[in-house]
Design a protein that fits this description.
Hydrogenase maturation factor HypA; elongated; nickel cation binding; zinc; alpha+beta; HypA/HybF; 3-stranded mixed β-sheet; hypothetical protein PF0899 fold; binds zinc ion; metal-binding; 3-stranded antiparallel β-sheet
Length: 114
């Protein structure tokens, strides 16, 4: 299960930041979900609740999710375009030589410790 691996990764990062700041609890963690990451927000939320509530430090810590749009770069003409709208073919020059620049992962943006 993809989402479970991601929440363990988020929990590790949050735990490190909390301990480094001498915090005893964490109010919230904000993550950006890539538009083409394949992560299902509802499943991620469920997995987070289950994982976080197992330990005192993360109990009741809220997971805030924001969407990061997917952007593809054309290697031939340098155009950046929306991946979801146009896929792998550059809408400016028709080139198939493109690669995904952002929007495929999960990035932690903010951790609010108490
Ligand atoms: Zn192009």
């Amino acid at each position: 299960m993809h989402e479970l691996g991601i929440v363990f990764y988020i929990a590790d990062e949050v735990r490190d930041v909390a301990l480094a700041n001498g915090a005893t609890s964490v109010a919230s963690v904000t993550v950006e979900l890539g538009e083409v990451s394949g992560v299902v927000p509802r499943l991620l939320q469920d997995a987070w609740r289950w994982c976080a509530d197992r330990e005192d430090l993360l109990r009741d810590c809220e997971l805030v999710m924001e969407e990061e749009s997917a952007v593809t770069l054309c290697e031939d003409c340098g155009t950046r375009y929306g991946t979801v709208a146009h896929g792998r073919t550059c809408p400016a020059c028709g080139s198939p030589h493109t690669h995904l620049e952002q929007g495929s992962g999960v990035v932690i943006r903010e951790i609010a410790v108490v």
